[in-house]
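Sorry, explain these tokens?

___
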Amino acid sequence: MGLAGDRFGMAAARLVWAVAGSIAALATGCDYNHVVFVARDGGAPDELRADDSIKSRGATGHDAVSEEAPPSPDAGGPDSDGGDGSDGGDGSDPHDGRETDGHPDAQDRNDVAGGVASPSLVRQGTDRLIDLFVTSRGIIVVTATGVSLIDSRGTLEAHLDFAREITAAAHDGNRLAVADRAKITELTLDLQVGPTINLTETCGGAVLVSGGRFVCGPTSDFLGAIRTYDLDEGREIAVGQSSPYSGTAMRRVPGRDEYITASTSVSPSDFSLYKIDLAGTPTYVNESPYHGDFPASMTFAFNGTPATHLIQETGMILAIHGDPVSGTPCTREGAGCFILDGVVGSLRGGESFVALADDGNGTLIGLVGDPFPSTVTGPCHAGCTLQVINVASRSHVSTSPFVRRDLGPVAVTRLAPWPERVVYIAFRVPEEQGTPPPTGYRIEAFRY
């Protein structure tokens, strides 16, 4: 009787949670197809559709949760020997490419780098990946069609489908906002739907700065408008202008109301710095002065909190806000942004970082691979290593190399908060010769 009562209570709790989420979605007019909440007692997820009916979903749909044993480098899983994928790591998917899960191996998180021969699959899907955030509630995966919350093992906790295409998302450590082609929707970290704001223009990129201000970048790389929306006031509060060909992808400078873009559509490429003033107006400050002396892309990390330096893919350390030697500040009128102030020094000749992350406290984590990967071969086709670097001392330790031919170019890199020593790297699915470019992704967990 007690067991039956417990199960009834859990089912009732799930029903109340699902109904509350649906009412919130309908009240905000956010046009979602359905909300999915996953049962905690091993049952199938409950799906609440617009007609308020509860329907049990199996594990073969768009948000299927895999019941397979997770891959483990120590258990003879895919590429556990650093091989070429012929032992099962060739990207074949028993779930026909739908979203599935895995989890990192149970290796002690205090182990030093060097003991991990291969990453572990956390999740994969066929949608176009927009962004990935590691939060206090779990890992949030944003694709063009919806938002999923998974735990560190890849198990689906909740999912929200969007009727309109998602183009951008931003998370500031506390708040999460997602932009589709017509609206900004604020979500709680467990994917409960909050207020929405109508967009003036579709966002090509986005960042969240202090005061709950959502900065929406242009979809065009040439003289687009940058608009700031106040999530608390529910309206647009300011508009600025982007610099020509400065890039559309945006990355916030940690601890500052600033963001960085990279002009990846033109050559030579440069970094550009933007500031958001107290009124919310975005302003272009300046760009890096080297114009092709080294690569400038969205593969970079920061040093310090608030961040003072940017570390780019060849290990160059750039002072963001001016020349630390001469004291020349970074201003609109002259040079002084992204000034060379050192080099990490851990790369050998011809090597490059294909993914970078930092802990905000002087530690850099970089995935070293092919600096010129094609969309077919990917960055790890000839071998990748993970480096953990102390930026101040320039000391580093590297993992054993591993070969993976089922990983395409890197899309997003996120570090789990301390004390978890895990970096999550989202790879795009590699192309096949003579076929259209795929839109899928694979999220892999690296312990260090």
About this structure: The first strand starts at residue 34 and ends at 37.
